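Protein: Kazal-like domain-containing protein
Species: Medioppia subpectinata
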Amino acid sequence: MCGESGGSETAFLAVILLCIASVFYGIGYVAFYIIAIPFMDDSVRKKNSPLYLSLAGALRLCGPTSVDPGIERTDPRWIGAWWIGFIVIGTAFITHYVLTDIWMRIKRLLKNPIYICYTLGTTTRLFAVLGYLTFKSKYIESEYKTSASTANLFSGIIGVIPTATGIFLGGLFIRKFLPGPRLLTSLITIVELFAVMGMLSALFLGCPQSQFAGTHHNSRFDMQSMCNDNCFCSETKFQPICGPDNKTNYFSPCFAGCNLRCSRCVTTTNSK
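Structure follows.
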């Protein structure tokens, strides 16, 4: 990266700040799901409860996206390992009393057929879509040739707006028609089938594969050329850069013939 600075102290400070932020996020998260939802369900009429719960869930998704994080779209600083804190804190809170009492509670839950069916359904559903949810941004960035910030922007829009709309419409449907268990289960099944069809159709969409300078039809890979023959470029530091034709990628600015460290394309003043 151009202008690299800082070191382990800067990284350690960033980790500390993220841990503190996760603590406050956890407080708000618990308050919403553990306190707010039961309180809302107990405070309104049973008929209106689905509408209020769906509205609260939709607004909760839209709230974080309405705040500007103060990071430019070209900024490459994106952190994806947000889930590590849950593992560390969850492991730290395991006590002797929890381990002794948990088996009795698990045995009681295993005797509940509704809970078992719901858990199996949720598990299989997450098993099917977890890869898509985890690598959605990377897939958009690679398949549609966008920057990391643009890919995260589109993945956020895809994940937030349709989900919030679906939650609200689902609550509105339940409030208006008051469907029974069979009708509601049938509706969920139909919606899931449409979701599967949409994901399968996405496999046939994308942009043409970009060319990578140095690849040949006989599977030989040689990044050296007349443009970078005397540059002594490093083959271990991967900094991909796009060529002037907007189709050819280079391993690094050095292999593209750029003499400036901060060159963003091969058509700069000091490029060969």
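Remarks: The chain has a mean pLDDT of 74.
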